[in-house]
Design brief:
This protein has about 500 residues and is α/β, with parallel strands linked by helices. Among the domains are: about 150 residues, Rossmann fold (3-Layer(aba) Sandwich); about 100 residues, GMP Synthetase, Chain A, domain 3. Strands 2-1-11-10-12-13-14-15-16 form a nine-stranded mixed beta sheet, with helices on both faces. The protein has a five-stranded mixed beta sheet with strand order 4-3-5-6-7. A hairpin with a 5-residue loop joins strand 20 and strand 21.
Length: about 500
């Protein structure tokens, strides 16, 4: 097993394709290795090197992918969401202790202003005319001394913040060895080979895109074609241009792609996918089945999180089964069930815990969070995921929900994922997210936000009746809200926590 990002790229043929993008020539592995050397030289000249933290704020696309891979071979990368406000950039840049920031040429917006206020070295990324996808030059506004040694396995490669929906976001440092292990785990579980090509539509400030799409592809000597973000209308023309063998996305993206699949049957036939991958949120079983039918390819649902450098479990490839509603079998780290309060492993339903070389050594400067989330048992260190679930007798893991998101209806526990699965089977339902609605007597009541398919006419009463035939009465949503769009987080994930407030329902309860 390779233990650094640099080692992942070493052995691939120089002329093999590495990174592509719309309307651009391919960047080869030789070109990517040359770019890594020039980026290291630029960083070192600017006073940033091993152990120094370099924020990257770029739009989605090949330069973002290449910047992550190359900067990580010389310093510590910290990709940030380009949509942040100046105050948010100031918080994150200060919190992670950034020394420098990579910005696109001409960028003078919130990230630039926050970096200038904090006194960071600004590295301007420019793309020469006619350059292949991902190729760029870096120019710094300062010079300085830096540790020019190449990062080793135990050095931090990547720093991300947790989403922090209910509290201050936590800093997650991921070592070179964590990222390399996860990339190789994903490569193995998907049987990625040099002839594979990923069409990436995931944001590259998020662990899913950085590791599953980009790092796993490059670990395999395969290629990754980087779209400028997600756009369901352009997705099928990108498929024709990129000729991918697979793509990876979150369930909300898959659902909008699925809605356009019937009118793009020619493209699906012309560019057959080996598989589709879904991760970062639970994929409703009926959506998995519909995608499999539409694309004539297996849908591989994976289970990942930032603290695991992404993947923990994955539905296996054929001939093994892909079980709708399950996140598959352990796929890299050891995955077990622990008691939700006591620090011990257990059987049946409980909190999912993991242990392995892809797992972060711990949250930075947060001993309380580390004490809550890590424990020792059986000679191993285990990380508590915050998810509740259980294994079946074939080793497939089914999640029942985030422990924080389980709805407590007067002492009766309701899994929002179970209700999602039931309502998503209704023929008129395109998207659903079940969430807790504050209730004066019960504490919480079950509610669901739903987006209907185009032209569908189901009413609240119809959907409640449909659910009532399939689940116990206490699990049936008391309120069903039909929306044009459900609010999403920055990475396209539907967010249950706080949804009642966002929709103005908390006051009504």
């Amino acid at each position: 097993m390779h233990t650094t990002i640099s080692a992942l790229l070493e052995a691939h043929p120089s002329d093999a394709r590495a990174i592509g993008a719309p309307g651009r020539d391919w960047l080869s592995y030789g070109g990517l290795r040359d770019l890594s050397s020039s980026v290291a030289a630029s960083l070192h000249a600017a006073g940033a090197g091993r152990g120094d933290r370099v924020a990257i704020v770029l739009p989605n696309g090949p330069e973002m992918a290449a910047a992550f891979v190359t900067v990580a071979q010389a310093a510590v990368t910290a990709p940030l969401n380009p949509a942040y406000t100046e105050d948010e950039f100031a918080f994150y840049l200060e919190d992670l202790g950034a020394k420098a920031i990579v910005l696109a040429a001409g960028e003078d917006g919130p990230a630039f202003r926050a970096a200038r206020t904090l006194g960071l070295t600004i590295l301007t990324l420019a793309v020469p005319d006619g350059a292949p996808a991902g190729a760029f030059t870096l120019h710094a506004d300062a010079t300085g001394a830096a540790d020019r040694a190449a990062p080793e396995a135990d050095d931090v490669a990547l720093i991300l913040h947790t989403s922090g929906t209910t509290s201050r976001p936590k800093i997650v440092p991921l070592l070179q060895s964590n990222v390399a292990a996860s990339a190789q785990n994903i490569m193995a579980s998907l049987a990625l080979a040099p002839e594979d090509r990923c069409l990436n539509v995931m944001p590259l400030f998020h662990i899913h895109g950085l590791v599953a799409a980009v790092s796993a592809s490059l670990a395999a000597g395969a290629s990754v074609w980087c779209a400028p973000g997600f756009d369901a209308i352009r997705f099928f023309s990108w498929m024709r241009d990129a000729r991918p063998t697979w793509y990876t996305a979150v369930p909300t993206m898959h659902q909008t792609i699925l809605a356009r699949a019937p009118r793009n049957a020619d493209t699906i036939a012309e560019v057959p996918l080996r598989f589709l991958r879904s991760s970062s949120a639970s994929l409703p079983g009926p959506v998995m089945e519909a995608l499999t039918e539409a694309f004539g390819a297996p849908v591989i649902e994976g289970y990942g999180m930032t603290e695991a450098a992404h993947q923990m479990a994955s539905n296996p490839l054929p001939p093994r089964a892909q079980k709708p509603g399950s996140v598959g079998v352990e796929a890299g780290p050891l995955v077990r069930v622990a008691h939700e309060i006591e620090n011990r492993l257990t059987e049946g339903t409980g909190e999912i815990v993991i242990s392995g070389p892809n797992v972060t050594p711990g949250y930075e400067s947060n001993p309380d969070a580390n004490a809550r989330n890590f424990f020792e048992a059986g000679g191993r260190r285990w990380f508590r995921t915050g998810d509740q679930g259980a294994f079946d007798d074939e080793g497939y893991l089914t999640l029942t929900g985030r422990l924080k998101e389980i709805i407590n209806r007067g002492g009766e526990k309701v899994s929002p994922l179970e209700v999602d699965g039931v309502l998503s089977a209704h023929p008129d339902v395109a998207q659903v997210v079940t969430f807790a609605l504050p209730h004066p007597k019960l504490g919480e009541e079950v509610a669901a936000a739903i987006v209907l398919r185009e032209g569908a006419t189901a009413a609240e009463a119809d959907l409640k009746a449909f659910a009532a035939e399939r689940i116990a009465a206490f699990k049936v949503p008391r309120k069903v809200v039909i929306l044009d769009e459900i609010p999403k987080g920055a990475t396209g994930k539907l967010q249950r926590i706080g949804l009642a407030e966002k929709l103005g329902l908390a006051e009504e309860a």
